[in-house]
């Protein structure tokens, strides 16, 4: 979908979304509606900005920016990651009428923060000029109607990471389709019943990644409210596929990805591959004896949909009580859309995939010794990043949504409920939650 099409889908004004799709009965956290107030002009004197980030070493990047000019100084504070308490810390600060100028917000939580009144619409401060410098898949996650609620600084286009010697021992190549994946998974099990092609994350994140790739659009925001559609043919097909894989023990659900047992199993050759966001390349370096064995391949494809799903990603968002939103946007623009900024984030913050259009980072242009000399960033991850579902939209109650998905996945693993039967129930639950918040929401007619 084009940018104009997405804006039309969401509604052609901030007011229509705020009063209809987002729900006029919802009480925001912010004391005042910052986005209904006049814009704050740039300061005539030097300013100091605060940035709360869950990434490691944020001040190092700030120091590099601070040396580029003498008008803006950015001071960083490390907080827990968004899912480890960082979100709660940011929202609590805003509710108290305080908080930083800039906060790290996961892309999937942006709509929830916007609904709470916690974010400045930086589109009012010129953020639309940044659009052409950001990959469309990342940009689409920070835009609601005519509003921009953050500048993406890392994303997670998914790919298949696999151990080449194990594949070669079976005479196998990376599967191009999910049907081929299923056949190879069965072949691995037949070869050795203690081995698996991969492990499945039962937290719910994997299910959204696969549905997103297949072309599902579970949430739509229109001028008269939200539409929740988790039961279309595409979504049912994804659920049926994983029902089959779990029921036939084609994938392990007892060795959680990135757990200590998972690293041990991968190092021992009992886990052959993993499908994950681009940031997995760094974590795989902790697999025992993994150097030179791993490779990266495109994500297997469904019969419908897109080249890749997405796992993870964050943005820098200007928080509601910032007194210097224009200067905050200037820092975020430098950090996320300049080559020095991107290189600094890769080196010092260990970010995932940079969403800067046309530049993946100097470090990522080089072949990787760990991945056997493969130039996987350019050869694989660039196409995966370019092949995203631009119609996917996260709900404004994402934390509860992900909890529901996790409960459903665990129920499926326990043998209590098939995923294909769980999706309608999840849809009913999320609709009820959104309605209880005062949102206008319905299932598709």
TrEMBL record:
List the source organism.
Brachybacterium sacelli
Protein name per its UniProtKB record: Multiple sugar transport system substrate-binding protein
> What Gene3D superfamilies does the entry give?
Periplasmic binding protein-like II
Q: Does the keyword Transport apply?
A: yes
What domain of life? Bacteria
Report which residue ranges the record marks as coiled coil: none
Q: Which UniProt keywords apply?
A: Cell membrane, Lipoprotein, Membrane, Palmitate, Signal, Sugar transport, Transport
Q: Matching InterPro entries, A to Z?
A: Bact_solute-bd_prot1, SBP, TAT_signal
Which Pfam families would you find in this protein's record? SBP_bac_1
Signal peptide from the UniProt entry: 1-20
Q: Do the record's keywords include Membrane?
A: yes
